[in-house]
Amino acid sequence: MNTYRKTAVIVGILFIIGTASGILSGVITAPISIGTTFPHNIAASETQWIAGTLLVALMGLSLAMMPVMLYPIRILSIIRGNGGHRPPTSLLSGGLRPHRHQAKPPGPAAGRAG
Q1: CA 46, 52, 53: angle at the middle one, nearest 5?
Q2: DSSP for residue 89
Q3: Which residues contact 80 (CB under 8 A, 6 or more apart)?
Q4: pTM of this prediction?
Q5: How far apart are the first and last CA of the chain?
């Protein structure tokens, strides 16, 4: 797994940048959007609104780059033949239905008289 360490670090940094910029954009633009005179507040503090908007754009860019960085890992795992693994339960059925590769519960023993 050390071959993917660089990618994991980059994706982690992108996640932190996206989360932090999203929180900061909310903190910066919250005082402007509160109140009954919301559209007029933007003109009064234009620089603050632009900073919040740029932080939202940074959040979108960094979070959109995460799958781009992870895509080569998925392709390599498919090429190497180990990309077909599924989770142990089906997420579509609420995680309650077992897949074919799971062991079935033991049933009654064959040939026993009961």
Answers
A1: 85
A2: B
A3: none
A4: 0.61
A5: 52
Confidence at residue 64, expressed as pLDDT on a 0 to 100 scale: 93
Average pLDDT over every residue of 77-95: 56
Residue 89 pairs in a beta bridge with 98
- Written as six digits, the tokens of 104 are 């079935």
Residue 49: count of CB within 10 angstroms of its CB: 17
Tokens of 84: 């077909």
Query: Got the DSSP string for 23-46?
Result: HHHHHHHHHHHSSS-HHHHHHHTH
Report the C-alpha dihedral over residues 23, 25, 31, 32, rounded to 10 degrees. -150
Virtual CA dihedral for 15, 79, 87, 68, nearest 10 degrees? 20
